[in-house]
Amino acid sequence: MSVSRPLDSACQEKPPTLLREAARLYAAAEYFVCHEVLEELWRGTEGPLRELYRGLIQIVVGLYHVQRGNLVGGRQVLARGLARVAEYPSPCVGIDLERLRRGAEAYLRWIEAGAVGTPPEPPPWCWVG
Question: What domains are there in the chain, each with its CATH number?
């Protein structure tokens, strides 16, 4: 991906408070509340980070669906979120998106293989710097 100046600049920004709160909820596997916090952030965002936040929402909603036993819905939403997040450089707003993408891809493969056996760890939400 060729990074535009506005995106490059936006990705260098400090993580907003709502994003940090969402990460805390994500780490606690509180996916439903996490998605609500991310939606609040997404609604209040314009510019190049808006679709990143939308992708994070979709990843979280996908995990929530799987947590509740809805593998079909989880796979669909997780795949959409992964595609959106793939459009951003890593790191972006302090998130190691490369690790998140790799984890989401592994989780998606597990779902697509029938969710047999022990599930992989949820995609890691790691901060850099």
Answer: 5-9+16-112 (1.10.3450.10)
